[in-house]
Amino acid sequence: MEETISLQDIFKTVKKRLGLIALTTILAITIAGIVSFLILTPIYQVSSQILVNQENTETATVSNQDIQANLQLINTYSVIIKSPAILNQVIEQLDLEINAAQLSDQITVATAQNSQVVNLTVQDSDPALAVEIANTITEVFEEDIREIMNVNNVTILTPAVFTDELSPVEPNPLLNMAIAGVIGLMIGVGIAFLLEYLDTSLKNEQDIEDVLNLPVLGLISPIPDKEMVTVDVPTRRRRG
């Protein structure tokens, strides 16, 4: 019985403060929309691919052992791509006003399992610059890896391409607004229950019993105004 009453109290509190809850939810969604559309800087993402293949030899056949050796080198190549030895040259060629560590944060290097293709992803607020960074990194890496590792098994498979249809990957206004809506709803419900907890006024007979520790013997039901009967009481005239 107590659980049912507690559940009823929850619904009553939510219903009572429904306007407050709706206001905080709408306010949170509005703020998230304004921040996403007007304040946050759009971030664009481009990708290029390089292929780690066999070294140029007189034989045209490629053994499974060669492929496995190339796969083992990919992890090493992924580290070299993001190393200052490569990135500092990219910064110098493109005249970027950032250091190698900052540029490394904009770069992601990934490979599919058992694949000889390395995907290089670059994010930047300028899509054209992101394309230049991605292509310059792959070009510098392809050239320098010959001296660094004394190999010639890297080929640019797919360079990054700039298109007018390129859309930002961040921020995601709809996702941000959805998350803000959930947070605003939770905040609104929390404030509603906090106000209800701070309200110490007596609302029903149960509150009276809890405060006075006395049983309620009877209740006086309110009488609607339309059901009230007025009685005219005649006044006595004073004798002169």
TrEMBL record:
GO cellular component, one term: plasma membrane
Alphabetically ordered keywords of this record: Cell membrane, Membrane, Transmembrane, Transmembrane helix
Any coiled-coil regions, as ranges: none
MF terms (GO), sorted A to Z: protein tyrosine kinase activity
Record localization: Cell membrane
UniProt domain Tyrosine-protein kinase G-rich: residue ranges: 142-194
Residue intervals passing through the bilayer: 20-44, 174-195
Keyword NAD: no
Membrane association type: Multi-pass membrane protein
Record-stated family: Belongs to the CpsC/CapA family.
PANTHER family recorded: FERRIC ENTEROBACTIN TRANSPORT PROTEIN FEPE (PTHR32309:SF13), TYROSINE-PROTEIN KINASE (PTHR32309)
Protein name in UniProt: Capsular biosynthesis protein
Species: Planococcus lenghuensis
